[in-house]
Amino acid sequence: MAGELRDNRGRGEAEWSWPTIHPEGRKFGLIAVGIALVVLLLLDWEILGWPLLALSAGVFAFFRDPERVVPQGEDLVLAPADGLVSLIVQVAPPPELQGPDSTGNPGLGPDPVTRVSIFMSVFDVHINRAPVGGTIRRVAYIPGKFMNADLDKASEDNERQHILIERPDGRAIGFTQIAGLVARRIVPFVKPGDIVAAGQRVGLIRFGSRVDVYLPQGTDSKVLLGQKVIAGETVLAQIGAQQLIEGVSQ
Question: Which alpha helices (DSSP H) does the chain contain, by range?
Fold first, then answer.
């Protein structure tokens, strides 16, 4: 049940259930089903109709919105997206997230920080979630290209949307939704001034893409290159914690 408190000592209840379909995707699924039924029933083209019907199920699955159990902790930074950790690099935050805005709200500094990039394939859940709780201070949409989102330069060249969240302690965390080869629409659920909880749904990107997270100064990633992460559940970092973590693929 959504909103139920659960812990690592067995408190709460857990059961499997079918994920819901986000309203943003229902129209696409229904359109796909309608086309499949026309081809299958009216035109009697079974060789094309059945694959189209299977594709319709895939469209609904793409927009699935499963419940997540969000870890609670003041200094935790959670993964904002499902997918593969494809890059962990030291870079300066994008200019759109740097410095104060027109109202004086602080942004990120110009110095290099750790950026963790999460690549979402078409098979991943594409609902994005807030990595921390706080107030949305900035939502900046930048039009651009639609190159492979797995490439490093996609952070600067592709269509993207920057979001800055100010925590209650005044520390700001920025992340960027990046469109990819197939993705053609970044859909925000929030606007400046909104207050969000860690793990809350903040947007989606249609059909394959990437999300970059800019960790605060003095903070290392707790996930490894090549690791699969889950939005709203995987702890990406703990603010102020620096530690080399190694893993072996097997």
Answer: 23-37, 46-62, 154-157
Task: State yes or no: is 155 an active-site residue.
Answer: no
Three-state DSSP state, 35: helix
Alpha-carbon dihedral of residues 187, 189, 193, 194, nearest 10 degrees? -160
Mean pLDDT of residues grouped by 10 in the chain (250 residues)? 84 87 85 87 82 86 92 95 96 94 88 96 92 96 68 68 95 91 77 97 85 96 97 97 93
Dist. CA 18–CA 21, nearest whole Å: 9
**Residue 66: other Cβ atoms inside 10 A:** 14
Distance from C-alpha of 16 to C-alpha of 32, rounded to nearest angstrom: 27
Name the catalytic one among 102, 209, 221, 249. Answer: 209
Backbone angles phi, psi at 24, to 5 degrees: -60, -25
The reported pTM is 0.88
C-alpha separations of 176 from 20, 26, 235 in Å: 25, 25, 18
